[in-house]
Amino acid sequence: MKQTKFQKTVVIHQGALGDLVCTLPALNALREVSATVVGIGSGRLKLLEYAGILDKSFLADALGFHRLFLPEFVPGGNLSAVFSDADLAVSWLGRKSGAYRQNLSRLAAKVSVFSGPFPPGPGDGHACAVLARPVIEAGIPVSDLFPRLSLPSSPDEEERMPAIEMPFIAVHPGSGSRCKALPLKQLFRLMDSLSGLLPERTLALIAGDAEKSLLIELVKNLPDKLKPRTRILENLELTVLARSLCRAELFVGMDSGPTHLAASLGVKTIAVFGPTSPEIWAPPQPWVRVVRSSYPCAPCTDDRRRNCPEALCLENIDLSGIISAARNLLAGGPPAGS
After folding, report:
1. Does 314 fall in a domain?
2. DSSP string over 38-74
3. pLDDT digits (tens, 9 = 90+) for 157-197
4. Which of 171, 180, 172 is nearest to 313 (CA)?
5. How confident is the model at residue 303 (pLDDT cuts 50, 70, 90)?
6. Residues 193 and 324 in one domain
7. The CATH number of the domain where 277 resides is what?
8. Which domain holds residue 169?
């Protein structure tokens, strides 16, 4: 039986999709002890509202949320209405602003603001554990550090699903930055290998705004033999993307938001890591396999990654390791780490 500790909790999160998914263990723990949970942040929170983790979400800009960072903040308006009767506010925003913390304390009976290192560095622990800290500091245990997301059945959403031949393999070749994306030469070789492994499957390429330039190059250079098997799913709404991923037989992606999302939905996932650290960022679920670069300088620091002219760690990804991981997952192999 659910034990309600808080009547109303307000969560504040403006992070990218991958960061949001890594915060799911903390958010699910809050859901378990709160009668009502509302969120303030970006439009990505609509996914959590759809999944029932939030009862309602609000865009920060629409509420004039920036006023909380002002020393002369005066409560009132829609912002105060959202916080009305809030027992607890947990924020993953504003850790460097004393004014923000003080003003937030005027709106909620108890406040916990994330103050840890972000992005986490070597020795800081996995991102899911780091992002759980403000909830733990609020006195709420976070015992399950696997991001989990369950979607409701929705006939309305089914009508909005993209037409795609079943079964299919979802591939996300990009990431938040081009320096974490799989080079096209490697991508085409991977697609060809996946086609050989599963010849009857459609290859569904996931692409969003971050992959716009990559997608242009991909379409221009896609080998003829791959064209009949390839379907591009471009700029899907987040709830539609999530429902689409649930149908995938396998997901292959880089260190990216869609990769974390697929894993949180229970999809068999292969996460490919080049310049970033899988010890910090790899989805931790047992239905995930991690393929990492063996290049000597990988993983590297954020500054080095941003200024790297060649991304040799991604050029040298072992594609045979990805195919072996795919075989293992599809054959129902043992959980990762066993």
Report:
1. yes
2. EEEESTTHHHHHHTTS-SEEEETGGGTGGGGGSTT--
3. 666 777 777 789 999 998 876 777 888 999 999 999 999 99
4. 180
5. confident
6. yes
7. 3.40.50.2000
8. 159-330
